[in-house]
Amino acid sequence: MEAFLKVLWGERERVAVWELEGSGFPLDDARHSMIIVKDWFDSAGYVVEAAGVLTIIAGVLIATWWFLTRLTSMPKLDAYREFRSDVGRSIILGLEFLIAGDIIRTVTVTQTLESVGVLVVIVLIRSFLTMTLELEIEGRWPWQQSKLKS
What we know:
- By secondary structure, this protein is mainly alpha-helical.
- It has a domain of about 100 residues.
- It is about 65% helix and about 10% strand.
- The chain has 3 helices and 2 strands.
- Strands 1-2 form a two-stranded antiparallel ribbon.
- α2 runs antiparallel to α3.
């Protein structure tokens, strides 16, 4: 007789087969271990993505605080430019975390051609956003040499 141990994680449901004879140990230890490892990597991917979102939120809050304190000590236009630069940097860093989380979950958990295609599109969009933010912040593309100020 077989019973099913349902392991709920987020929106997905994973099912491991257990045998009820005698000891009650898993019918297939390797399969059960693989499910646990996949769940761990799936969770790690979500944690990395959450870190990305928190990085963006914290960066915007800190940049706003700095902007408000700079308003009294420097010209408003300079304070605004630094504010935009600070917000842009926090978004770039957050996007890097989000890309890493997507890669972790796609490579280790959902290994289908469709999920890899979706990952490619997400990475391309986020990379494009990162490059355009870099252009706006630094005034140059990431592959160009930096302009030295004299």
